[in-house]
UniProtKB/TrEMBL annotation:
The gene is UPK1A. Keywords: Membrane, Transmembrane, Transmembrane helix. SUPFAM superfamilies: Tetraspanin. The keyword NAD does not apply. It comes from the Eukaryota. Belongs to the tetraspanin (TM4SF) family. Pfam families: Tetraspanin. This is Tetraspanin. The keyword Membrane applies. It is a multi-pass membrane protein. One of its GO terms (biological process) is epithelial cell differentiation. GO terms for cellular component: cell surface; membrane.
Length: 258
């Protein structure tokens, strides 16, 4: 009986076992990378969350939270899969496949959610412009939050408005209700400054002279920020899914040989 039991444990192609172990090592390393990447996204390094939050289209971050769970789960399941393969246990391998399938589905949801909501923001500069005109300088909690965000972006990126300074002139805005056009046609953070952040020429900025006002819009920076977040969540997650799929299929085949 002992030799028979030993033969049952040794059933299965050793080459397939080696490939599966290598595949799970790569999966667990990718899981840690996905975890780190999505933690970076949820930390909002570009500080553009208020735009997505106020619009109600912040599921880019919801996808990131799902991916944090999936990244850690991929790491744990990679380790568990290696143990199950090394022991040749049908029960452990079945449990590995079931759990991996569940995590796989969650990661698919994370990728799809983040990418579809990224499209809403990136392809819709009018939404960002309308939101800015509505909330900038508004004396509400959301208004103060968005005002701080736009002030920081316009200062750091040396840009003005969503598409340019004319956003503040061509459209009705909350800012205009507090500041007449003759006094401040646009926020003075649109003005060009010297190395000490002192406005070069307040009067030149007020009249819109190109040498004293930032003519570039800020939407490009916001677009790049959201695209960077989406790449980390969706495209990197999708790459992991494309690698995990054949590993799971090979593991299913190996399960049938045990």
């Amino acid at each position: 009986r002992a030799p028979q039991k030993q033969n049952m444990v040794e059933k299965g192609n050793p080459f397939i076992v080696g490939v599966l172990i290598l595949g799970n090592i790569i999966i667990l390393m990718c899981g840690i990378a996905l975890y780190a990447e999505t933690v970076w996204v949820t930390a909002d390094q570009y500080k553009v969350y208020p735009i997505l939050g106020v619009s109600g289209k912040d599921d880019v971050y919801a996808g990131a939270w799902i991916a944090i769970f999936c990244g850690f789960a991929f790491f744990c399941l990679g380790v568990f899969g290696i143990v199950a393969l090394a022991r040749g246990s049908r029960l452990q391998l079945m449990l590995y496949l079931v759990l991996m399938l569940i995590v796989y589905i969650f990661e698919c949801a994370s990728c799809i959610t983040s990418y579809t909501h990224r499209d809403f923001v990136v392809s819709n500069h009018r939404m960002v412009t309308k939101q800015m005109l509505t909330f900038y300088a508004a004396p509400t909690a959301q208004g103060r939050e968005l005002t701080r965000m736009w002030d920081r972006i316009m200062m750091e990126q040396q840009c003005c408005g969503a598409t340019g300074p004319l956003d503040w002139v061509n459209h009705t805005s909350t800012f205009r209700s507090f500041y007449p056009e003759g006094l401040a046609p646009w926020p003075f953070l649109c003005c060009k400054r010297d190395a000490n952040f002192v406005i070069l020429s307040p009067e030149g900025c007020r009249v819109g002279h190109v040498d004293y006002i930032n003519t570039k819009g800020c939407f490009e920076h916001i677009e790049n920020a959201v695209n960077s977040y989406t790449w980390g969540i969706s495209w990197f997650g999708f790459a992991i899914l494309m690698f995990t799929c054949p590993v799971m299929l090979l593991a299913m085949y190996h399960y049938t040989t045990l």
